[in-house]
Amino acid sequence: MSDQLSYDRTTDVPKIVGCNTRNIEYRWSIFENVASDLKKPSRILDFGAGSLRETYYFAERGHQVTSVDLDVSRMKIFASKYDWSRAAFQPELTVNIPSDRSFDLITAFDVIEHIANLNDVLPAFHKALGTEGMVFCTVPNKRTLLEAVNKRMLARGRVYAPGEAHLQFKSPSEWDATFRSYGFDIEKHEMAIGALANNWYWSVYLGSRVCDRLLPSLGQAMRWFVNPSIMRGFDQMDKRLGAGLSNLYGWNLIILRKAR
């Protein structure tokens, strides 16, 4: 069971409102402001549902959620960690996107980058989405240190667990062009996780992992340089720089609709 829960995010904030990462509490409103206007109950497809945190967020607010991920038994373990008496509907847990209904909202947080062939997913999103429906998604920006390392490790033949590796590497404009090519309009696109904080964190963390193998005490000492106080300082610098470095920010926050 420990392996099954190695990516346990049940105690994290849902991506609808933000994320706690790089020792920084990031909060955004791009998704929450739109989600708050959904009629109840709306049909929601949580694709790449993982720990079910977004599934629970919407179910607790009176929506009908279908949760899709690679392993239903794993989702059931995560489901046991939530109080479903607070939800109006129990989620449907499945490995496939249902073909017998349409959805008012599809969420795909931190998942599309793990898919080797986007033809396997994006046309299915388009088909499953209702006429007035939306897609909320988050995807990484290839213009970061971490994504450069991920791409290099993949090219060198590193073996990853199923669903773990990043397989799509795109800039913000390339993500927009990709979604448009599959029949979507970009309704909103914001960038999150500042360039200075993101790249500083991963340069220190990845360096410390190397040191862990050679001199563990040095690796532990290095991680002091990404403590919350220091990272908040980098976050403040990112905010002062404003939009100047936004094209180098770590993550894309995107809302899609079917092209008219």
UniProtKB/TrEMBL annotation:
It comes from Mesorhizobium retamae. Transmembrane segments: none annotated. GO terms for biological process: methylation. PANTHER family: TRANS-ACONITATE 2-METHYLTRANSFERASE-RELATED. It holds the Pfam family Methyltransf_23. This is Class I SAM-dependent methyltransferase. Keywords: Methyltransferase, Transferase. GO terms for molecular function: methyltransferase activity.
